[in-house]
Design goal:
Blueprint lengths: L5 H32 L9 E3 L2 E3 L1 H17 L3 H26 L12 H22 L16 H8 L1
Keywords: Membrane, Transmembrane, Transmembrane helix
Protein name: DUF4383 domain-containing protein
Pfam families: DUF4383
Length: 160
Amino acid sequence: MPSPSPYRASMAWRLVLAAVGLVLVGFGTAGLVALGTGPGLGLDNEADVLFLRLNSGHSVLLVVVGALSMGFATNHTGMLRWSLFMFAAFTALFLYGTAQSTADKTTTWFRLDPAEMFLHAGLALVGFVVAVGAGAVPWYRKRRSERFIGTDMERKDAEH
């Protein structure tokens, strides 16, 4: 069985990142809708969305990260850079939130519960897996001299 082309392999990782972005936008939007129809938007109010307890700040963060994930999934280089950023940012958020929330839940701006900590750890893991998987795809842009096939004269004519 032949190996998939670099384009198809890259497209698979882009679809993974876009799917993660779509799920995050869904969670964030559901959190904002639940807050808007229930206790009201505000950092002190929280709403349950499946297993997460979201306030408006965390919901907006999820929507923004999801939208950026879908936006950066359009090309290979953007996907690599964004997934590495996701890995670093969500690892830092997980470590910070875990350290601050162990003493008192209200010490962080997002008022993070253990479920949100696992969400951040999971998003860091997804960022790492996408970065490593997409980084393993043999993808490169051809040099200008490799784009033309033919004699040197044809190449010079094509450049002018």
